[in-house]
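chain below, 342 aa
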Amino acid sequence: ILIHVCITPCVLLFQEHHIETKHGPVSVAVYGDHDKHALITYPDVALNHMSCFQGLLFCPEAASLLLHNFCIYHISPPGHELGATPILPNSPVASVDELADQVAEVLDFFGLGSVMCLGVSAGAYILTLFATKYRERVLGLILVSPLCRTPSWTEWFYNKVMSNLLYYYGMCDMVKDCLLQRYFGKRVRGGSAVPESDIMQACRSFLDQRQSMNIWRFIQTINQRHDLTESLKQLQCRTLIFVGENSQFHTEAVHMTAKLDKRYSALVEVQACGSVVTEEQPHAMLIPMEYFLMGYGLFRPSHVSSSPRSPLNPFCISPELLSPESMGVKLKPIKTRANLRV
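prediction:
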């Protein structure tokens, strides 16, 4: 099914594929030239590519960087795609390992070898788990407010409350408020004296269209996740982590960075931002991503010195490239794992 999506200054097409896997069907929206390198994305709970990565792709500089170098494969969690129908009640709830295996089946379906991965929160967990299970298939990880440990008591409790509300009342206002608090910082959420931002209003409208029991299933899955801390030491790919200063998962991102190989990973804190940096402050991701991808010989069109279709040949990121001066005033590197000078 071809669907037109307008992204300034050009019009893009994506083709949506519904793929049967051993662990149930999965929807994948594909943007770009299939001959280019593959970028796999996975969104957070109750989101899909239109609500989790649209802001990033509406940022012209980021869009040119990503679409010039990659064909983007947006994987939706089960039942999260546009126009999804309710998953049959007797279908088993997938485990996190089964969702990671599902990603591998998607790669096999499209005949993909090694890929770059971009995930947000719960989606970042699934892609990190995928990277630990299929190390040879992941070239690099770009993770936004990632999860890597079992849920804290606070997260577990919030997830249980949302699960019960979804089960009995559907996508009610309280569930939407919990999800929006998970996604965004206070500045975007507004308050009694400050009206909600356009992003918030658009996200509320989007959540109204979700199938509540499909969201319930993904929350059940992510609330039963296991700790990846020990597995992180076995990762063989370079990793760039973004986390919002006000993200509920800030400590998770710091913990994860501390456990990764300090030579090949970096943590970037985005000021005055919540968890879904791709929507709230996508422009803040541009410079770190650009330097990260330079390590693979990939550039924005205006900087092209080699074909984006040439084999990836990564080298270690220079510490100077992720200095505060290089990142711009809206970014604040913290306790990175690349021996950065701060």
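Residues 14-150+227-295 form a domain with the Rossmann fold fold (CATH 3.40.50.1820). The CA atoms of residues 70 and 122 lie 23 Å apart.
thats it, cya
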